[in-house]
Amino acid sequence: MKKFDINNSLSPELIYSAFINVDNEILKVIDMSKLSITLENKNGTEKIIYSNKDWQPIPLTDNWLSKFGLSESNLIRNNRTQTDWIIKKTNEEIFYITIKRDFSLGENPVIPLNSVHMLQLWHQLLNETYLNTDNVLK
């Protein structure tokens, strides 16, 4: 990581190693500043983009979950609160995470995971670790 701006204003939902679509190519975020996002393709070639209009999210699917070694019903541990969150899917094939607990205190929060980078973001926020991306683009 070079000078990664974790408080970036360009794309605050992107984190280091997030996967996005640029010109129909899957690229990995390797650096970010307030003005640009540096990406890498599967061959290690770098590309720089300068606007949120230059990229699209990758829809989260069962196949993408499996690339990270995950599946529906996997737990993501919130290391700060020691609470487990569970990956679920609606009948419309939309993924989300929610706290895995009983409902004695009311409704559980529901956070949509409609894209790969949102899964990566929430895993990092909750678990304080990055998902393993070593073999994703191979």
Description:
- It is a single chain.
- With 138 residues, the protein is an alpha+beta fold.
- It folds into two domains: 1-56, SH3 type barrels; 62-127, no CATH class.
- Helix content is 13%, strand content 28%.
- It is built from two helices and eight strands.
- A four-stranded antiparallel β-sheet has the order 1-2-3-4. Strands 5-6-7-8 form a four-stranded antiparallel β-sheet, with helices on one face.
- The mean pLDDT is 86.
Determine the number of helices (DSSP H or I, runs of at least 4 residues). Answer: 2
Question: Which residue ranges are poorly predicted, with pLDDT under 50 across at least 5 consecutive positions?
Answer: none
Distance between the termini: 21 Å
- The secondary structure category is alpha+beta
Radius of gyration: 16 Å
Largest sheet: 4 strands, antiparallel
Compact description:
With 138 residues, this protein is an alpha+beta fold. The protein has helices spanning 62-67, 116-127; strands at 19-22, 25-32, 37-40, 46-49, 75-78, 83-89, 95-99, 110-112.
